């Protein structure tokens, strides 16, 4: 660092959900590799998820820090320790307003964040879109606010077109398909694949928050996307030229993780030893294992899990299957078919809890990925060059499915018909078996794999020195430096 130019300092403020905290930590590390001082602002429990990563980054010479905001779950009316969306109770007996309380509780963070902004005067605040007050908070101290959505440019444009033209209001039935108007690519959806809050057009706390978020985005300095220009060039141009927004594409941010520990310890502590997991994969042939994981939020019921088990078994394919259920002593696991694990010994590995996802995806033995199409998982699959079976559950995942299967053409849809928050639509074993066979073996599998591998190369090129994401990140940092004069 030159002595006359003080180091650029950026605050990162993620919403408390694994799918946002994980790429934010990667992003902070990425900026720090370019000599930027980065500070992640979060709550105590969330900070503990990535304290080791930060420690390792500091030891390697990166200027990455964490500041913790006091957060009272008790005051918010939430169960103790419920600081991250993946810790929210999902049982049907829980009060329905718990998610709404979780969103409201974020407001409690405004005052302490403003105090930090005043004290540290960073050059920029990168805050998640679900903090609609962040633009004004930063503005009070003359600090530009950048929005981080954590979703693709494609889905951002699609959602924008849905809000502008409301095509779902002109169909006769829930399953009738409509084209998303004015969006390049002729994307067709049905009303069933939309979230309730879009379909029902009833104003709720959540829709009010979305509206406020959009307004605050329009007044912000711009948007950062975890994506790379070549992957979504048509939509990156559309976002800029048609929707008139300012954006930087700086991803895939997960590619900043090179060491085994960094790949293995993202988000929570892995439920398997990473070396054991690698050893299991090492003894398999290239492209012979299908990896099945549905992110941090989806929570399938026992009937669906049993169906997945049966579909995997009849596909005859080797697999790693991540199930968000811990094994409790003595309790019967009603989601496993009788004798399944015994029959699958040596053929399939079930990870109960958190998996070292990018370590697994990057292994040459993995030849396919059954994914819920969360944007991080989707981009991680692209970066690893694996074809995907798309199984959207909720959020903006149905858009990502379209992007993977129809725009990129590196996956096949398992056939989910409707958007159902966290629990998902029911998918039958026959559909699972068919899709697994299709992406793992035969002509289609080969074609999908070749395309996927080419995209993975492109992703690596984008973050390498001189690549598009590398250059856009540099341009952003330079712009922030110039703002000081
Ligand atoms: N992830 C992981 N291990 C797991 C489940 C998820 O490392 O067992 C990571 C995954 O690599 C991704 C993130 O958690 O970075 C999930 O984000 P995504 O956007 O895919 O889905 P969400 O959890 O937000 O639905």
From TrEMBL:
Q: Does the keyword Glycosyltransferase apply?
A: yes
- Which parts form a coiled-coil structure per UniProt? none
Q: TM segments?
A: none
What's the family? Belongs to the UDP-glycosyltransferase family.
Keywords, in A-Z order: Glycosyltransferase, Transferase
Entry's InterPro entries? Answer: UDP_glucos_trans, UDP_glycos_trans_CS
CDD domains attached to this UniProt entry: GT1_Gtf-like (cd03784)
Which EC class is this protein assigned? Answer: transferase
Instruction: Tell me its EC number(s), please.
Output: 2.4.1.-
Kindly provide the name given to this protein in its UniProt entry: Glycosyltransferase
> Which species is this UniProt entry from?
Theobroma cacao
Known PANTHER family for this protein? GLYCOSYLTRANSFERASE, SCOPOLETIN GLUCOSYLTRANSFERASE-LIKE
One GO MF term attached to the UniProt entry:
quercetin 7-O-glucosyltransferase activity
- What's a single GO BP term from this record? flavonol biosynthetic process
Has the keyword Kinase been applied to this entry?
no
